[in-house]
Each structure stands twice: as structure tokens, then as C-alpha cells.
């Protein structure tokens, strides 16, 4: 039981999370943490349908391009300016979970652990476009990347040792009406952003998240294989001292949780309902049509991205996700899901002074950290690389992969639940009260989870 002296915000969040977990039958609660018998990964057999996602490119000519921020309300601590860097170095434990629209979600198969000693996660080096499409992770028109920053044999190897770049991109599905695969743009953008971070030869602190988007976008525009398309983008650059710079363009976004409370959240950028900011490549033919018939294209640029600086601390959890998550899960859903997993695995602990960080955090976030606690089907380990399906069981189940799969799985369930109005449905009812829109929003889902671990604590545990 959480002591009464725990702060109201943290206590109420944690308690409500535990009650939700007990109600859903996810855990068998015991007063001894070693006797928890979690069953996080339940097979979800749902019949999927699809909604119209985004506005068709040919109808954007008549859009009102007045910029107005969307609302994503959170019960949280207020967003603050850049804080003083932590005196201790941090390392980052990262995992990704994704699921394509209309496809069954597999929480084990669709979760990927990031190994900083290996190549970038979610990026294909195959130069053949057909092979690249075939080897893409199961994320549909969403894409992601996670990569160390800089060349490991560069002059700045020590300063860049624990620096990580990561991000997501959400391809605009309306381009399918013009016979364009939206995934080409989003996956190409993530590939080029990852390559830019990997080949960075200066200190990591000089790499800016908005520059990553700009460099990736410039290379997409120059790529002859990507003749048209568009996507949103949300990118982060994390430094060893805990400083994280986040750049967001569109309705993807980020949330930072600290000890059972939301410490930061991004605000979606939209031109109007279901019309987010988006990077675009417009074919000359469509521009010619616009010059004849009039109108304007929905075309934003990396310079329009909003930039936020946050300071991560030991035990913080940062998520970056596409709108497939935020259209189906509200602030309390995300807070309860992450708090429940952190508390029930012992990563966060309740003390007399409040919610604290467990000494076992590093072990829980290490490969196989939760292998003994969670049932993992034989022969179905979490893959380190979405293009490699033959990873061995030594990869195990990590705390960050469990959180990522939990968020993606809950968003998947909510997206096909027509009795539960999600954030997208509530926005639709607010903008179009005469229309009947209920339930979730079927969409591609992608979420990146980053857990900060302090090196001094890690060394003492080792």
C-alpha cells in the first residue's frame, strides 16, 4: 500500500493505475514484489476496419491554411524551460513497438530493443527499393529510427558515447488516392535522418533535432525514388548529461513521465481538424494543376517544427509516438499504463517521501531484465532489429520493450473499440457536432520508449 504521505498527484496516479490493473486482471497482486505473476501479453484477436485517415491530396487545394494549435490536455506539471544538466552521465535504454493498420498486433514480434553497439534500429541499408519495402518493420505508413550519434572511431568518440538520436514519422495516407505509397516518404525520411546522425563528426551537443528533420527532408526531396508524398515528424536528440532536444512537426508527439507524473508533453501542430502540419513533396504535375485551377497546397517545412528542451533524470520515461497512439489514448490512459508497469515491475517504488526510483532499474532495463517475470513464448524473443527475425533468446524481455508493447497494444485495442470514444472522436464531435463519429480511430501505430539510467547508479549495481 502506498503511504498516506505520498504526494497527492503521484499517489492518485499510482493508485488509479494499480486499481486499473487489478480490474483488468493483468497482474495478481501480492504484498511481496517477488511473487508478482504478470501476464502482460495477451493475444488480441480483433476484427479490424479502417477509417479515412487524413485529407486527400487533391482536396487540399481549397484548404484554409490558417495555423492553429490543436489541444492535447494533460494533467501534468507545467512545461518548463531548459534545466541545469545533471552532474552524472546518463545512458538511455530504448525500445520500439509498432503495428500496421489492419494487421493483428503481436506484442513480442512487434517490439524491438535498441542495442547501442549495433547499427541503427528501424533502418534498412538495402539500396534496392523493392527489398527495402519487403524488409520494413510492421509499422505500415509509420516509420521510426533509433541510432547512436556520430562515428564510433571519430575524434569525439568519448563525448558522443551515450548520445542517441531517435524519432518517428507518420506518412500521410491520403496520397494513396494519387497512387503514391505514403510509406516511401516516412521510411525514407527516417532512413536519411538516421544516416545524418550516424555520420555526424562533431560533438553530439552541436546536433540539433530540427537540423535532423531538415537534412532528412532535403535528401527525401532529392531522392528520385520518392516522387511524391508527405509525413509528420517527431525527433529527439539525447545527450549523456540528460539534456534532450525534441522537435515536433505535426500531430505526432512526445510525453515525459517522472515518478508517476507527466513532466512534459508536446502540443500537436494542426491547420485544422485532422489536418496536421506535414512535410511534403509535390509533383510538378500537381503544381501545374494548382496554377491552372487555383488553390494552395498543404506544405510545411522543417523550420515550422516546434522545439522543446527537457532535462531527463534517472528513472524518467520518455515516449515519442505517432497519432495512432494519441488519437486513441488520452493523458490518463498513458499515465496509468506507464505508471502501472513501472510500479509493478519495481522500477518505481513508493516511499514515505514519495514515488522513487528503484535500485534495480538498470537490471530491469538490461536485455532479459524481465525474462524471469514475464511469460515469453518459446522461439519468439523480442528482436533487436526489425529486419532480423533470427535473434536468439538472449535478447530477452526488457522494461522498455514491455512499456512500448503495452502502449501500442492498448492503442490498438482502443482503435477498434466503437463503444469507447477516444481523443480523436471527441475532437470530431467538437468540430462537427452534427456528424456521428464514435469509438477509436484505426491507424498505424508506432511508439518509441526511452528510459534514462544514471551511470553512477549503474556502476554500483554492477
Automatic annotation (TrEMBL):
EC number(s) from the headed UniProt entry: 3.1.3.16
Residue spans of biased composition, Polar residues class: 377-391
Entry protein name: Protein phosphatase
Record-stated family: Belongs to the PP2C family.
The keyword DNA damage appears for this protein: no
Stretch list, region Disordered: 370-395
Cofactor requirements of the protein: Mn(2+); Mg(2+)
One Gene Ontology MF term: metal ion binding
Record key words, sorted: Hydrolase, Magnesium, Manganese, Metal-binding, Protein phosphatase
Lineage: superkingdom: Eukaryota
Domain PPM-type phosphatase span(s) in chain numbering: 127-452
Catalytic activity entry: O-phospho-L-seryl-[protein] + H2O = L-seryl-[protein] + phosphate; O-phospho-L-threonyl-[protein] + H2O = L-threonyl-[protein] + phosphate
Enzyme class: hydrolase
Pfam family, one: PP2C_2
Gene3D superfamilies named among the record's database cross-references: PPM-type phosphatase domain
Key word Cell wall biogenesis/degradation present: no
Amino acid at each position: 500500500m502506498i503511504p498516506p504521505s505520498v504526494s497527492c498527484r503521484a499517489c492518485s496516479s499510482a493508485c488509479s493505475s494499480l486499481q486499473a490493473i487489478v480490474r483488468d486482471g493483468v497482474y495478481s497482486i501480492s504484498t511481496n514484489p517477488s511473487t508478482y505473476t504478470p501476464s502482460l501479453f495477451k493475444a488480441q484477436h480483433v476484427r479490424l476496419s479502417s477509417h479515412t485517415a487524413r485529407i486527400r491530396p487533391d482536396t487540399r487545394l481549397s484548404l484554409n491554411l490558417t495555423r492553429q494549435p490543436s489541444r492535447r490536455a494533460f494533467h501534468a506539471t507545467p512545461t518548463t524551460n531548459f534545466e541545469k544538466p545533471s552532474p552524472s552521465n546518463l545512458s538511455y535504454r530504448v525500445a520500439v513497438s509498432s503495428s500496421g493498420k489492419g494487421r493483428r498486433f503481436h506484442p513480442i514480434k512487434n517490439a524491438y530493443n535498441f542495442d547501442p553497439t549495433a547499427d541503427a534500429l528501424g533502418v534498412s541499408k538495402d539500396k534496392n527499393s523493392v527489398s527495402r519495402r519487403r524488409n520494413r518493420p510492421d509499422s505500415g505508413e509509420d516509420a521510426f529510427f533509433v541510432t547512436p550519434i556520430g562515428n564510433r572511431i571519430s575524434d569525439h568518440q568519448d563525448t558522443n558515447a551515450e548520445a542517441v538520436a531517435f524519432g518517428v514519422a507518420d506518412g500521410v495516407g491520403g496520397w494513396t488516392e494519387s497512387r503514391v505509397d505514403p510509406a516511401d516518404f516516412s521510411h525514407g525520411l527516417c532512413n536519411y535522418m538516421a544516416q545524418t546522425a550516424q555520420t555526424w563528426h562533431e560533438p553530439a551537443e552541436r546536433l540539433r533535432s530540427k537540423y535532423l528533420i531538415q537534412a532528412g527532408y532535403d535528401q527525401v526531396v532529392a531522392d528520385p525514388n520518392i516522387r511524391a508524398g508527405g509525413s509528420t515528424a517527431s525527433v529527439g536528440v539525447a545527450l549523456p548529461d540528460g539534456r534532450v532536444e525534441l522537435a515536433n512537426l505535426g500531430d505526432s508527439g512526445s510525453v515525459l513521465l517522472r515518478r508517476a507524473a507527466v513532466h512534459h508533453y508536446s502540443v500537436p501542430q494542426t491547420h485544422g481538424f485532422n489536418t496536421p502540419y506535414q512535410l511534403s513533396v509535390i509533383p510538378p504535375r500537381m503544381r501545374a494543376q494548382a496554377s491552372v485551377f487555383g488553390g494552395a497546397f498543404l506544405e510545411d517545412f522543417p523550420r515550422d517544427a516546434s522545439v522543446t528542451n527537457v532535462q531527463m533524470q534517472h528513472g524518467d520515461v520518455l515516449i515519442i509516438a505517432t497519432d495512432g497512439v494519441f488519437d486513441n489514448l488520452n493523458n490518463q490512459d498513458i499515465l496509468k499504463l506507464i505508471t502501472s508497469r513501472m510500479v509493478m515491475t519495481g522500477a518505481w517504488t513508493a516511499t514515505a517521501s514519495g514515488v522513487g526510483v528503484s535500485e534495480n532499474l538498470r537490471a530491469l532495463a538490461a536485455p532479459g531484465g524481465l525474462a524471469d517475470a514475464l511469460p515469453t513464448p518459446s522461439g519468439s524473443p523480442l528482436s533487436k532489429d526489425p529486419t532480423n527475425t533470427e535473434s536468439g533468446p538472449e535478447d530477452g524481455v526488457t522494461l522498455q520493450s514491455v512499456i512500448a508493447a503495452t502502449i501500442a497494444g492498448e492503442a490498438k485495442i482502443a482503435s477498434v473499440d466503437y463503444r469507447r470514444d477516444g481523443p480523436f472522436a471527441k475532437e470530431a464531435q467538437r468540430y462537427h457536432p452534427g456528424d456521428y463519429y464514435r469509438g477509436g480511430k484505426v491507424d498505424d501505430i508506432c511508439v518509441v520508449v526511452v528510459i534514462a539510467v544514471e551511470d553512477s547508479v549503474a556502476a554500483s549495481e554492477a
